[in-house]
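Quick log. Single chain, no ligands specified.
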Amino acid sequence: MSDDTVVVWDESLLAYDLGDHPLDPVRVELTIALARELGILQRPGVRLIKPALADDALLTRVHDPRYLDAVRIAPRDPLFAGFGLGTSDNPVFEGMHESSARVAGATVAAAEAVWRGEARRAVNVAGGLHHAMPARAAGFCVYNDPAVAIARLLDLGAERIAYVDVDVHHGDGVQQIFWDDPRVLTVSLHETPLALFPGTGFPDETGGPGAAGTAVNIALPPGVEDAGWQRAFHAIVPSVLRAFRPQLLFAQCGADAHRVDPLADLHLSVDGQRATYLALRALADELCDGRWVATGGGGYALVEVVPRAWTHLLAVATGAPLEPATLVPPAWRELAASRRPGSDVPLRMTDDIDPGYEPWQPSGEPNPVDRAIAATRKAVFPLLGLDPHDPRD
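-> predicted structure:
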């Protein structure tokens, strides 16, 4: 296996543009620009590859052919309605099929490069559109690129793929698509569905018949900060991954759990997000011989958060992590200010937060985070042969 890291990138990925909408492609443009300014994309062993459009054979591994027809037709038909398209969340836009298929093709290319041993890790920051359903657009997502890529890996012979979703919203589309498939473990940490879209991701969602224990949901209360989030992550994610023994780890790294994100209510820092990427890489190294595919996802603090978070992701994936106190290059600050006038352009790659945490223990008076941990462990750990009360599991 090559030790290279593949970064799938081309400016054509910016064409996934919903218009005057929270999911603004400027966040991806600024991420790539920041990573370039900091020398991350120029590191030895980093290969940039251009994506091709996923063809219908790939897309229909996940999506209904009638839905593909609808995505193609909708921009040309002013009376079109249905399939979740033409809503405020998923407005119709010119070139919708082509740009969505290119995002899916980019994530497939990342996954294939890792599976075939051409790279140890691969990243598509433009991907992570995890809400799209087989026959419906949802949550800003037209085609579900993580699910398309995972389906492709299964076709190539993969027997156990773990998908870990750290977006603030539940990874509902990926969970639903693989609900009955014991070859795919879906793990999602998210704000409680009682408070946030899409209203799913409760602890008792544990997988369909024949796949019990392959859906894991950690639903966190609003206001959780780094220490609580890390406590929950480490109380559950390493245990379920070790029990499942994946051949490849796929991570959806939405940056919208940050404290200033306008669409949710968790209070993470960029430092906490960086710590999560390091933990995911370590788990891939421990369990999958380093095979790790990562995408972006949500994230709506377009200048303040997303470019820094995903630049940290790219640094972790390509080698040495960036020091948190690294200064943001002046040229990038000028670019960001020109793209989003009036934004609070950051000076450094840190929020000056220590993301340390106290490991979970099944004792004492539980706080809301510990209640969430206990609910998930109780629901899913026995299905994986683990003891929900033993902190060693």
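The radius of gyration is 19 Å.
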